[in-house]
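User: If only I could read backbone structure tokens as easily as an amino acid sequence. Underneath my words sits a plain record pairing an amino acid chain with its backbone structure tokens. This is the protein in question:
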Amino acid sequence: MPSAGDAPPILDFSAFYSGDAAAKQKLVDDVRNCCLHNGFFQITGHPVPLELQQRIMDWNKKFFDLSLEQKMEVSKDTTNSWNRGYELLKSQILEEGTLPELKEGFYIGAEIPKTHPYFVHKKLNSGPNMWPSAAALPDVAGFRATAMDYYHRVVDLAADILRVLALTLDLPERWFDDFVQGAVATMRLLHYPSQPADSPAKLTRGIGAHTDFGTITLLLQDRVAGLQVYEHATGEWLDVTPTPGAFVVNLGNLMMRWSNDRYVSNLHRVINVSGEERYSIPVFFSGNPDFVVECLPNCRKEGEEAKYPPITVEQAVLGGYADSYGRAEKFKKDAAAKAAQAAEVPAATEVTVA
């Protein structure tokens, strides 16, 4: 069981598949303790091969090694409206009061054709993926095949984690199956340049302190550290040291709402002062976009009101996007306005030369 000052523990998830009832129960108990503590744990012993993890991380680095012009050919802001493709540095501010974040990303999800009802009805993050051209990335077919293989395996693992979470809440193991059916999940390839030595420490972030918008997140880290989890009991930020093969798993805001705050969607951030490039790959499992999340039946006492009103998955996640991207846009507009104002020469100071 985690205690104050500990980084998220590493749990052997193979117990879920083992057929050993006692080992499975211990896993359930350990996951429950983590969810009650700070909503973070790490897992090994899962079915996603280490070789595939390494291969997708290699492609992550290859993609971000492309020129800015090549990456902008698949910009999510200019080529589509369904959140697929490349995202520029400094596009988001998750922690209010900080500078735009030092990360660039590439969004991938399920391949959803434009004839699919999700696309037709403009459902959350639903549409075809955007891939670099063969001119930019000669083996783009290999990139696509690796990315989609990895994506689907991690989404399957997320469904298994939700079965464990159901058991931690004394629900039937398959309680979340309807929520998983038709689920939306979004994968982000991420690149964090090392923060400049002269950057203001209290304002510069790779990703600012935030909680995730969806249900659960599965994060693959490369060897360069930078992820930190907040420990409320001590007021410390705990480093999450990268462990080969392990996924960092954390609960999102939807799971906290579902459990009526019994479980924790905890603050975390990335600050890369290593002097090296950091790469990571989170998969954000949101769920069926039309599914209505409301207080679980056994997470409030009889007669007690739920802390949150019912909300659809889509409404909850889009609200989180609007806040974080809106902050960055406002910051840029304000900065541009200040720069324009500073560049103006007031008429009263003009000097006329005869």
